[in-house]
């Protein structure tokens, strides 16, 4: 018998773990509801409880702790989303799971979590609370401009990063030039992002997660910031498991 299941929605796919696996099954939902899918899996496997990051659970207002999730039928616990009113911004349930996993491993963490992807969430953490957040569109722009899969930072990345950090007002002019190599494009975009998010990283320790974490942590280290890269999938699973205890 399976004791528990844990699921995290990632776009149109559901990452699903059970108590025997550290690597998730990845299910294409094809229009199905994630809550229905995990409830069916609970019945099929005889799981007594499950946690899901992705369906609509409670809404908590920042500043707040990633609180205990709501229970529903079949002892399925739905993780909350966090909402900031001014400026308006949200932390998705999957991002809540990641932050909860980080705080499970490092309850004294005081700094900033940067969760990269289509957008990048910058979340300031203090006293186990999410204190303030902002979000940038670096990943979305990189994909729209044909950047492809992010490659490790190189000299071209660092040159574009430095140029945009020094003159961020020139970013749109730079993007109008013949298509730069992917590392130059990413360096320019992250340079602009660092100008915009300076209050979140200046003087902070930063943990970066996701597909652009290597590039972002490297860029921050060049600014003298104590930045490291974390393992997103493991943190999400740890956070989900903390809600099952």
UniProtKB/TrEMBL annotation:
Taxonomic superkingdom: Bacteria
Matches recorded under Gene3D superfamilies: 2-keto-3-deoxy-galactonokinase, C-terminal domain
Organism for this UniProt entry: Thioclava kandeliae
InterPro entries assigned: DGOK, DGOK_C
UniProt-recorded name of the protein: 2-dehydro-3-deoxygalactonokinase
